[in-house]
Design brief:
With about 625 residues, the chain is α+β, with helices and mostly antiparallel strands. Helices cover about 45% and strands about 10% of the residues.
Length: about 625
């Protein structure tokens, strides 16, 4: 039996049959049945961005990098709306993975173990599953393996051309998987400092980094042009970090049940980006000969009224307000033919803030009724804490501030809920607002001024936390014709997404500050959890689909088994002082650098082929197939 296995592994056709096996499995997943519910289009909406590119529109996001979108756009341009085409092409690309694994492993572990690793990859690679849907993973994995292969070739042959190719590929990989951005820098630094050091190694590293930078630079320049921020990959890291801080403590397996999730919505309309403010609106004709729509604005720093002319777009009008220094309160309204929106015009304008304080009360002039005013009213009722007359919270106009004003405030902020206030319960340390649906907002006695200090549960309470309304609107007559509708401020991607990155990062650090030990434990847990598939029946946590329970259980068993065998393979390779131990650098890099953020097993499949080599080492040792056979020297 062992002899037959050795002969099979010694066959020169292993580098042909293994990729063909991957190809066959991938095509089966595309055209017959796939163990995922997403279909050809996938779940990341790359196709929508690709269609914009085909129509000649600019790439309209900084939230995902360009790589996979441009791949889909090329497929759309060449083959039209045939969704099966890009997934079929990437199945063929993914079929290279076993071959690349063999080429990488053979010089270090011998032909037989490399052949075994290629076959394990061919049959069990999770990349083959993702190749059958519009997902960047399988293409990224092939590019990553090519980058590693060319780097190793550069090392073995001392070839600057090989290092340049490896660097160029390493610059493309993060445009498919942003978390891979720092790995080339770490590898280059380690290679330059590892004995034997010398000028030649420094030149090789400089060549590698220069090529990588050359491929990253156009995207960075584009992002800087739009955002005035250095963004090598995307702005998505902020929300991913926040998600990671939500997935701690009792919610370690699911952020969806963490009540702090409600702070995703801001308490105020604001931006933290000190760039020109882009206001969008559509026009409505309210009177004959109304005239062109104009925007007028002033700030708390400059009370002079400034007029801005509209810029016509395909969907409406845009107005550019000059950049404002934080903190600034912007007051603005629209005018056309003597009519204004809001109706009170300059006397009761719309309000927008420019501020770096993501969690505090930005409304220092009390122009808005907001959650901080609700907190003031609760604290007054609970502990008789005085309220400044400037807050204008005698909303009933009866000369006193009491529970009726709190009821009026809640109703004004949530008119769809009607009379929703039930009561305010108070203790020495906390006061709790109870609403009719059973939801609550608890205000601590030692409230620091951050709205994230509040403990919120339930639907109505969760909505109330992010509501704000102009004080002037409370007195405006109903029924006025709005000359400007669909008003949006800084909703264009190059303003919204950098701001959201900053906001979610602030929310994340606020969560970490509250329980650093829980976050540290969750991060350590995710370092291992990253390698394991674990589904649940919870629809808020795991996507449910036919056979999902069976598929997730199979994935759990398979991923747990291969991870355990991988650890055994690492131990064996360490004892043998295998040259392939260098592959532990990218394998360890992934959990060490993303354990802080929201993660799942998908994030590790880029390095899974390298892990399969260690699996093959363990399996080969167990079966005693040896490492020799036909020469594995491919470099």
């Amino acid at each position: 039996m062992r002899t037959r296995l050795q002969r099979w592994l010694d066959s020169p056709r292993v580098t042909v049959y293994a990729p063909l096996t991957t190809l066959a499995i991938g095509l089966f997943f595309v055209f017959v049945w796939a163990p995922h519910p997403w279909g050809w289009r996938g779940i990341d909406q790359y196709d929508q961005l690709a269609r914009e590119l085909v129509r000649g529109e600019p790439f309209s996001t900084t939230d995902v990098p360009w790589g996979y979108t441009y791949y889909l756009a090329a497929c759309l341009k060449l083959f039209g709306e045939r969704t099966w085409v890009p997934v079929t092409i990437q199945v063929f690309i993914n079929a290279l993975t076993p071959y690349l694994v063999y080429r990488l492993a053979a010089p270090a572990v011998g032909h037989r173990i490399a052949a075994l690793a290629a076959w394990i990859t061919a049959v069990f690679s999770f990349n083959t599953i993702y190749a059958s849907t519009q997902s960047s993973d399988s293409i990224c994995t092939v590019l990553f393996l090519l980058a590693v292969l060319w780097f190793v070739r550069g090392y073995r042959r001392s070839s600057l051309i090989a290092f340049a190719i490896a660097g160029a590929l390493s610059g493309i990989v993060p445009q498919f998987r942003p978390n891979m951005i720092l790995l080339p820098v770490i590898v280059a630094a380690g290679y330059a400092l590892w004995p034997a050091r010398g000028m030649r190694r420094l030149i090789e590293c400089a060549t590698f980094i220069a090529a990588m930078t050359a491929l990253l630079l156009p995207w960075m320049i584009r992002n800087y042009h739009y955002t005035s921020t250095v963004l090598p990959t995307s702005t998505h890291g902020g929300i991913q970090l926040w998600y990671g801080t939500l997935q701690t403590g009792p919610y370690i397996e699911s952020r969806a049940h963490n009540p702090r999730y409600i702070f995703a919505s801001a308490a105020f309309p604001y931006t933290s980006i000190e760039q020109p403010i882009v206001v969008f609106a559509t026009e409505r004709a309210c009177a004959p000969g109304q005239g062109p729509l104009e925007l007028l604005y002033r700030t708390n720093r400059d009370t002079s009224l400034h007029r801005v002319q509209a810029r016509t777009t395909a969907s409406g009008y845009e107005f550019d307000i000059p950049a404002q220094t934080a903190p600034t309160t912007l007051y603005y309204y629209f005018e056309a033919g003597g009519l204004t929106t809001p109706p009170s015009g300059n006397a009761g304008p719309l309000v927008f803030f420019v501020a770096k304080d993501h969690l505090g009360d930005l409304d220092s002039a009390h122009d808005l009724l907001d959650i901080f005013d609700v907190v003031r009213l609760i604290r007054l009722l609970a502990w008789q804490e005085p309220i400044s007359p400037d807050a204008r919270l005698d909303l009933t106009g009866d000369g006193i501030i009491n529970e009726s004003d709190l009821q009026t405030a809640v109703t004004a902020l949530m008119p769809e809920a009607g009379q929703s206030l039930v009561a305010v319960d108070r203790t020495a340390d906390n006061a709790t607002l109870r609403l009719k649906d059973g939801s609550t907002i608890t205000v601590p006695r030692n409230f620091s001024g951050r709205h994230t200090d509040l403990s919120v549960s339930g639907e109505l309470a969760g909505a109330l936390v992010s509501r704000a309304k102009r004080m002037a609107e409370l007195k405006e007559p109903a029924g006025a014709c709005p000359i400007a509708e669909n008003i949006k401020v800084n909703d264009v991607f190059y303003r919204r997404e950098p701001h959201e990155m900053a906001r979610y990062t602030a929310l994340a650090f606020d969560n970490i500050r509250r329980d650093p030990a829980a976050f540290a434990f969750a991060s350590a847990y995710r370092m291992v959890r990253l390698f394991i598939i674990r589904g649940t029946d919870d629809q808020l946590t795991t996507f449910q689909f036919p056979l999902s329970r069976l598929i997730f259980q199979a994935g759990f068993i398979a991923s747990l088994a291969y991870f355990a065998i991988f650890i055994a393979g690492v131990v064996i390779a360490w004892r043998q002082r295998s040259p392939f131990l260098y592959a532990l650098i990218p394998i360890a890099y992934v959990p060490l650098t993303i354990c802080f953020v929201l993660t799942n097993m998908r994030y590790t499949i880029t390095v899974q082929p390298l892990m399969f080599v260690f699996v093959a080492i363990a399996v080969g040792a167990g079966l005693k197939v040896g490492t020799n056979g036909r020469s594995g020297g491919t470099e």
